[in-house]
Amino acid sequence: MHVFVTGASGWIGSAVVTELLVAGHEVLGLARSDRSADAVATLGAKVHRGSLDDVESLRAGAVQADSVVHLGYHHDFSQMELAARLDRSAIDAFGDVLAGTGGPLVIASGVAGLGGGELVTERDTPDPASHVRVANAAAALALADRGVRSIAARFAPTVHGPGDHGFVATLVDLARRHGFSGYIEDGANHWPAVHRLDAAVLVRLAVESAPAGSVLHAVDEEGVPTREIAEAIGRSIGVPARSVPAAQAGEHFGWLGGFFGMDCVVSSAITRDLLGWKPERPGLLAVIDAGGYADVAPHAQTG
């Protein structure tokens, strides 16, 4: 297939581009900047200059392909409404281009916040009013009625691996600054996780064979207790792990406190059966213990 990928130079996107190319697909990657364009070209993909806030550039990229993987997102916590609006306009544009073709449109969504500690499966349908990104995923899935092979891939909050600058890297940075690795209350709440390279395989399988209207879970470990995450971080950088009272979580963890305090347990059994997906890479604790986050600084977050 000829696949147009947004977010092609990003943490997940760059792995997806490589996975698609190795499998023999042609890839056209969206790039907003010269730096992103160089990164996409280095991966071996063709470059399409444009951005998420330029709908015509998105359409122009999609018409050159027969499938779309939409991983790009405006990750600025101070502009959540703008991010959601850009995401929805991109989904609508891709739907218009692919309508009636049966071509796949794989969009990224998430599992964070689902379930409240109860096991979540692919068949669980969150209320679109609960979060704008949930509503956008529902809109993408509805494109199946227009002849689009639309697929929503719900990613674990931690897509880990050496070089990750996301949530876990932020927890490591906080542990260094505070002198201990914190978890909230007893740390019995859970974070699902998946290795970046396993997630890339799932996206490739989705492009190749997932049925229209599919909800997939890019989750390997159903839920890693946050205390165990904090303890692994502590071991990796030589600081103790310690409980942080819930009332102080916002002060200690900042913007990350709300995420790290969630209790989220997620199954991917349906996804595995549907696509034959078999995650093979190390789990989150193994990556931390192996030093995968010891020297990584988090990307700046706003909001």
UniProtKB/TrEMBL annotation:
Position of the signal peptide: none
GO cellular component, one term: cytoplasm
Source organism of this protein record: Umezawaea endophytica
GO MF annotation terms: aldehyde dehydrogenase (NAD+) activity
Listed InterPro entries: Epimerase_deHydtase, NAD(P)-bd_dom_sf, NAD(P)-dependent_oxidoreduct
Stretches that traverse the bilayer: none
Protein name (Swiss-Prot/TrEMBL): SDR family oxidoreductase
Domain NAD-dependent epimerase/dehydratase, residue spans: 3-82
